Amino acid sequence: MILSELLRVRYSVFFLSLILLFSCKTEDEPEVLLRASLITNEDHTWSKAFEFFSKRLEEKSDGRIKLEVYHSEQLSKEIESIRLIQAGVIDMTITASILTNWVDEAVFCELPFLLRDSKDLEKLVNHPISQYMEKEIIKKTGLRPVTYFERGPRHLTSNRPIKHPDDLKGIIIRVPTVPVYVTAWEAMGAKPTPMAFSEVFTSLQQNTIEAQENPLAMIKAAGFAEVQSHLNLTGHVVSWAYPVLGEKQYQAMPDDLKKIFDECAEEMHQFERNLFLKNEQTLAKELKEKGMTFVEVDKDAFANKCTEAIYKSLSPDMQKIYNEILTVTRN
């Protein structure tokens, strides 16, 4: 009870500090001032895309919309950013399966061994299932997905080769704060530890955790090659993430600015897509040059070890959507 009260007080002070920080207005403040909090550093394609988005919003609106971008968790961690948007303190972030803390359907953004490749992903994001997911996100969280960014496959990094699930026995691996990730890695034999992304590098450095999993772009941008020697090509998740805006913030805009915002969001999608495809061609080479050893793995063995546990962790309604997604992507 005491710990719960301390956490409540800590978050209250944190929220109040940000409210006070952002409450001061200036004479030249634009008609719509937006603030985005990102987990990625300035070198990541997401951060570059948001900087592009900020520039285009200001240009196309003749300065009526301004977007301030704060990268590297300068304002808050991902789950805190969502709460800050809901509280109206900030306005935008990028998120995905962590939304399962509010919306069960968001699990399909990053479900292990559900999608096989970019073709599967494209089929899904252009299907009514995804439109349904986005409506549920708006309804249950008050966050509006404004576009999507494809993510490269997630791979496992470690300080020894891991070719088979048997090699995972007892290894402490950082995972996002998403229950299905815990379920999957426990089923594969590891000891998953949910942790904020900003804490991962130091935890690896101090051997508090022994492994982590992320797309190549995040592995490179976070400098994990400095503290992890092996990159095990598990490819266990093919996924996407949503840049989101508070629904109240969106609806408060005049219709002409909504139109400009939507057009610029589509431009951001294309800009990030081009960066993503270009980066995917060079990331492996760059990580190898930084000393990482790439390890081919038995992907089927990893999938077979956890697929049943993942499926059983889903509610009956989510299992129906899971089966529908398989029908959509496998045909």
Fold and architecture overview:
About 50% of the residues lie in helices and about 20% in strands. It contains 12 helices and 10 strands. Helix 2 packs antiparallel against helix 10, helix 4 packs across helix 12 and helix 6 packs across helix 11. The longest helix is centred in the last third of the chain and has 35 residues. The radius of gyration is 20 Å and the shape is globular. The N terminus is likely disordered.
Helix vs. strand class: alpha/beta
Share of residues in helices: 40-55%
What is the chain-wise order of helices and strands? HEHEHEHHEEEHEHEHEHHEHH
Largest sheet: 8 strands, mixed
The count of helical stretches stands at 12
Bin the strand percentage.
15-25%
Regions with little confidence, pLDDT below 50 for 5+ residues: 1-7
Strand runs, count? 10
- Cα separation of the termini: 52 Å
Radius of gyration: 20 Å
Mean pLDDT: 93
Give the overall form: globular
Descriptive keywords:
331 residues, alpha/beta, 8-stranded mixed sheet, two-stranded parallel sheet, 12 helices, 10 strands, 48% helix, 19% strand, disordered N terminus
Short account of what is shown:
With 331 residues, the chain is α/β, with parallel strands linked by helices. The protein is built from twelve helices and ten strands.
Chain-wise SSE layout:
Layout: H1 2-22, E1 32-37, H2 45-60, E2 65-70, H3 78-86, E3 92-95, H4 118-125, H5 128-141, E4 143-145, E5 149-158, E6 172-175, H6 179-187, E7 191-194, H7 200-205, E8 211-215, H8 216-221, E9 230-246, H9 247-251, H10 255-289, E10 293-295, H11 299-313, H12 316-330
Parallel strand pairs: 1-2, 6-7, 6-8, 9-10
Antiparallel strand pairs: 3-9, 4-9, 5-8, 5-9
Helix pairs in contact: 2-10, 4-12, 6-11
